[in-house]
């Protein structure tokens, strides 16, 4: 099991930027793909972005493509999510997750069933 701790959430005005960070307790085969998801109360979890530890391949959800950038620091076992041009509808709790190595392609596609370890979440609030 990988422990994940998110940080960097907060309050920002529309059009502003925030950078989220996720620290993983270790990086092993079980963390071949790392992802960011978000979920509003009463709504389904939404895929935001995913990245491979090896090679840094990325994929993004449609609602954030072009505005958010996911990156990783293999030496520090951290994954970041740079969020630019934030919109009020980006106001939700963001979760970092680590995927099982058995479903890396599924994980990169954004399916949350491929992720086995989750952080506690960090709140992002965008004011209009």
Assembly type: single chain
H-E order? EEEEEEEEEHEE
* Contiguous runs where pLDDT drops below 50 for at least 5 residues: none
How many helices? 1
DSSP summary, beta strand count? 11
Radius of gyration: 13 Å
Helix content estimate: under 10%
Q: What characteristic shape results from the CA principal axes? A: globular
Q: Quick one: biggest sheet?
A: 7 strands, mixed
> What does the average pLDDT come to?
93
Percent strand: over 45%
Distance between the termini: 39 Å
Blueprint of the fold:
Blueprint: E1 4-7, E2 10-13, E3 18-24, E4 33-39, E5 46-52, E6 58-60, E7 68-73, E8 78-83, E9 92-99, H1 104-109, E10 115-118, E11 122-127
Parallel strand pairs: 2-11
Antiparallel strand pairs: 1-3, 3-8, 4-5, 4-9, 5-6, 7-8, 9-10, 9-11
Molecular structure report:
By secondary structure, the chain is mainly beta. It contains one helix and eleven strands, in the order βββββββββαββ. It has one helix spanning 104-109; strands at 4-7, 10-13, 18-24, 33-39, 46-52, 58-60, 68-73, 78-83, 92-99, 115-118, 122-127. The protein starts with a strand and ends with a strand.
Can you describe this structure in just a few lines?
The chain is mostly beta strands. It has one helix at residues 104-109, and strands spanning 4-7, 10-13, 18-24, 33-39, 46-52, 58-60, 68-73, 78-83, 92-99, 115-118, 122-127. 5% of the residues lie in helices and 48% in strands.
